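Forwarding the complex inputs:
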Amino acid sequence: MRLSDLEIAQAAQVEPIETIAARLGLASGEWLPWGRNIAKVDPAVARGERHPDSRYIDVTAITPTPLGEGKTTTTVGLTQGLGAIGRKGMCAIRQPSQGPTFGIKGGAAGGGYSQVLPMEEFNLHLTGDIHAITAAHNLIAAAIDNQMYHESRWSDAFFQKRGIEKVHIDPYEISWNRVVDLNDRSLRSVVTGLGALADGPLRQGGFDITVASELMAVLALARDLRDLRERIGRIVVALDRGGAPVTTEDLGVAGAATVLLRDALWPNLLQTLEGQPAFVHAGPFANIAHGNSSVMADRIALTQGGFLVTESGFGADIGMEKFFDIKCRVSGLMPDAVVLVATIRALKMHGGGPAVTPGRPLPQEYCQENLELLRSGLDNLRAHIRIAGLFGVPLVVAVNAFDTDTEGELALVRDAALQAGAADAVVTHHHARGGEGALALAEAVARAADAPRTTSPSPLYDLSLPLEEKLRTVATRVYGARDIELSPLARRQIARYEEEGYGTMPVCIAKTHLSLSHDPALKNAPENFIFPVRELRPSAGAGFVYALAGDIRTMPGLPSVPAFRGIDIDVETGRVQGLF
Amino acid sequence: MRLSDLEIAQAAQVEPIETIAARLGLASGEWLPWGRNIAKVDPAVARGERHPDSRYIDVTAITPTPLGEGKTTTTVGLTQGLGAIGRKGMCAIRQPSQGPTFGIKGGAAGGGYSQVLPMEEFNLHLTGDIHAITAAHNLIAAAIDNQMYHESRWSDAFFQKRGIEKVHIDPYEISWNRVVDLNDRSLRSVVTGLGALADGPLRQGGFDITVASELMAVLALARDLRDLRERIGRIVVALDRGGAPVTTEDLGVAGAATVLLRDALWPNLLQTLEGQPAFVHAGPFANIAHGNSSVMADRIALTQGGFLVTESGFGADIGMEKFFDIKCRVSGLMPDAVVLVATIRALKMHGGGPAVTPGRPLPQEYCQENLELLRSGLDNLRAHIRIAGLFGVPLVVAVNAFDTDTEGELALVRDAALQAGAADAVVTHHHARGGEGALALAEAVARAADAPRTTSPSPLYDLSLPLEEKLRTVATRVYGARDIELSPLARRQIARYEEEGYGTMPVCIAKTHLSLSHDPALKNAPENFIFPVRELRPSAGAGFVYALAGDIRTMPGLPSVPAFRGIDIDVETGRVQGLF
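Prediction (whole assembly, two chains):
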């Protein structure tokens, strides 16, 4: 009988968090216990130097099907595999939003025998970091409306008497929505401030899901508490009537928002199913934000020595590019190797296989050997290997094996990967067998990371390039576009943001993850396309300018039969049921 | 130099939570550490019997000024005083909302030398219980809109195929707002669901502050996890087109909402400034809900022996009445004594003194001896002593002393209290001097609670009375009204709710706390007034029918200079600044 992820997690023996913290290398004063076998680790630990015997690994993937190709399970499985070959393994992953958990997705703590424990806590509140972001984000939103409300009613003299100045927010230039950590389509676009005297200001606004908040990107990138405070203070929430940026500092709410995020800055320490330390900290979107877990967790882990395996969102074209160009620039840490997760399923899809749709049975092509389809899809794998090469980092291909994969198919992928320049290519069975199923992957990664460097990993572009050139560099060199096309709006915005001083920030491109291009229908390795940039926005607190190439949803909806209908609690044992 | 509450709290030596838990009597497996010197206590402890040497004390107050008369400081100070006289003291209080903390109020962890520690955690996220309620409440709200959205688009057959039935919610009969734990006037009344295809349903709604959620009242009243699950399932969120109640169970979301509140059911254990165990758990409104901390914390504490001091919201007419008629009925626990907090300031106001307004200097009458004004206001004190008598419980008057009170004034109040039937009446200085300042109060309370009972405390009315009679009983016997007057709407609602089976629930009257009557302008002890009941609503999950007598705000606003402007963080030490 095949057990569900939740059954495997609930049957597992969770070790005391003291044991995990000691295994990581922490002293007892360096962390706080926080509920059931979870700790929060003091950011002060990050002040130490990177340990000379540390290895830093980023896990990325080829262009996935809508089902995902097992990047998180590979991250956890590799960590367990490193343990199984006698190396010290640790991982650092993103905290998932609760919204999709109750919508369509179920849990997100890895899967099978490669999971992070405790699984219920991981998928629910954890230590409340996302709730803290919701609170801080909505406090800033309340500060905006409150400022407008009082300014519209009282005189300049009234404000001066109280030692504050009017801000004169342009009501049509507010760029700060409210947030909830939920899938709630009916909050996407709302009118607030209806009512009578004392209930204003009346205006149109909207809600995003909390993980899309700029505060989440800020939390993920903050190097320490001072950096967090400064980044929050730089966040631009609106323009004033003269067109000048209005920051949280201008509204006097930056300090209070930081106070609300004080504990959220402490990374959460959990464990893998096989007892390795597992950091779960921050979870920014991978389109309008950079899609990587926190700088703070990585800094802490790398002071302790051993292999730190982290994961970046979506494929190498998106999450990994942002890992190098945004996260590593901030942290000053560069990886020793990259793992590229591939599946036979996804490669067949790129080779022209029929559509893969969540909730529908997988078409026949994916359930039996089809070398033709697979061979046609290998260009996607080659493109991602080429992308990793741009950053000068050794790459190991991990073929995440499914029961239906044949030896011939697996061999074909391995050979293609090695020919394309991968340092190694191995099949991995961590989902079904845990660390024992990832021995070959762990050995390959250790070899690649331990090998003497011939190149030195680095970001793709120089920050001094103009914004347009940065966009062009990513689109042509990473995505494989022939050129970019800026909308007239994007062109005006670039001119303006460079004038305002945002020109030296890295770019964060929001595009579909289902294609190397901007068009989800273009599978495999499209060429000769023009990459369109519709609009840009500075995330001044996070420290990047994001560019929209397509429609990006920042508030999901619930399906007709939401996952919450199957979730309940055993009132005798307190155990959660139905969390997949 | 006088220290601020925050300075006193930050200078205090916080004891390890292990020490506090052991002092309470808990074994190490009965609680979990949860952050900085906070524990969550396993609800399983509540399965034990009430300890024979336990004493249960409720702290209430006379009708307050808008500044409040120090009920929480007295609760904490008395607990510390019990320690100072060698008795085992514990307290159980409500968790405050974060909204007012950033609005007008500053912290709410007691004050001066009678505080609960750690103070920053107390006033901010604590262990995330209120955030969990926000999440569960808004998940239910999303389930309502999602049901309407999909029902309006897909056929009956579509739903049947998926094993669920249409609910046919009447869009004009939705009684479930959304919530945020913030003061945000512009969310009081909103239109949601604007946009295009996939963004509905379009309707008018609103947000309340989280502590006004029925889920908060449910959490406060739940006897165990099973009871929590059942109460949540009974919550009525809307009516269907046939006028029948729609519950969370009908929407399939009751289980998931309970899962989100699983940890919130574990009471939070903190400590007083002098090291007594202090439970901080649940904080329902005292008007539309019952305004008392959790049944769970009280049950746990009373299994361990010693004095448990708890606090009920507003004056004896409101919070204490609901303590007996709602909370004690559910818990099956009856108090041994009640403490009535009075101040010279409030009594002078009742005697005809000028208005007391937050943020304005106190008028002269309150800063110097004025026996005349004080004497005129004593009727309010007498009325509250009479109210406690209705419940058959011994009462100790605690005169919360201010620097400006004179010996003559204090003696006048003590004498009046004793004449009116108080078991004792003492002056207390816990704010300035901690437990040492509350020795007399502790002695008096211990005497009253230890004395052999001549009466047996009981609720005011029998549940089998019709709703109208219950309302009349509370209004005439407690508030001193001549009679009640039901609006035509209220009359129709009573008939309907009795038909629907809510007739045997207790009533929970929402009225102003600034008068014994429904009219905040009627100070002291008004007589001969007719108490108007405008509207009723069942809180089917909490298990009471609430009645509105006046406008009750369930979403506060922010002032022109909100408290958040003064709140910041020391980026070197991580200490919070400006939290009063």
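The radius of gyration of chain A is 24 Å.
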